[in-house]
Specification:
By secondary structure, the chain is an alpha+beta fold. It has one domain. The chain is built from 7 helices and 11 strands. Strands 1, 2, 3, 4, 5, 8, 9, 10 and 11 form a 9-stranded mixed sheet that branches. β10, α7 and β11 form a beta-alpha-beta unit. The longest helix has 13 residues. It is globular. The N and C termini lie far apart (50 Å).
Amino acid sequence: MYVTNPNISLPENPDTIVWKYLDLSKFLDLLLSKKLFMSRSDKFEDQYEGTFSEPTFEEIRKLSENNPEFLNYYKSHREKVVVSSWHINEYESFAMWQIFTQNSEGLAIQSTTGRLQKALEAEKKSKQYIGSVKYIDYKKEYIPFDDMFFPFMFKRKSFQYEREIRIISDLSDSQLSINDGVKIDVDIDHLIEKIYIHPKSENWYKKLVIELVSKLGYQIEIEKSDLESDILI
């Protein structure tokens, strides 16, 4: 279920457009299971995920000199936090297609922050929060640690192109088994507003996606990528 946190910022407009770029297998798994995969925070490619900036780490290190468990707790906590990443953008992103899809057979889910909130109402076992990631200089800038979600809502400036909105959940008190991540219940009709097919995909692939979505009983609008538009001379 979606809950708010005053320390986690989110665009005020619920119609703010967000995207998720993924391959066909992950997309079909989402439609078939009606569950959204959330990755364990320490499994991301960014090794700094869920860690603190240098100024903050120095403060925590001093506080933990007489209490080593204090620092160990922060290290182990990354294994209990799960994340689903979305890209905030009014338009499609050529860069996101390149990074998150392969072999010209990817898809992009278009949604809004408001739709994400409604979609999460289907999940009854755990609480989810939604917030915008802040991009900072990890050598100079300070990350507060008075809220356990703060280290997961900051990333290095090198990742600023991601413009990330993330669904995040702390499963520390849950009995769920977390390997690479967990799947949570979502309302697909609220989650997905439109589907965009990879701009470089072939016609057979476009037809396959349309047929699969229809046979699974979904009435989701499927769009041709804007990057595939005809050239006007």
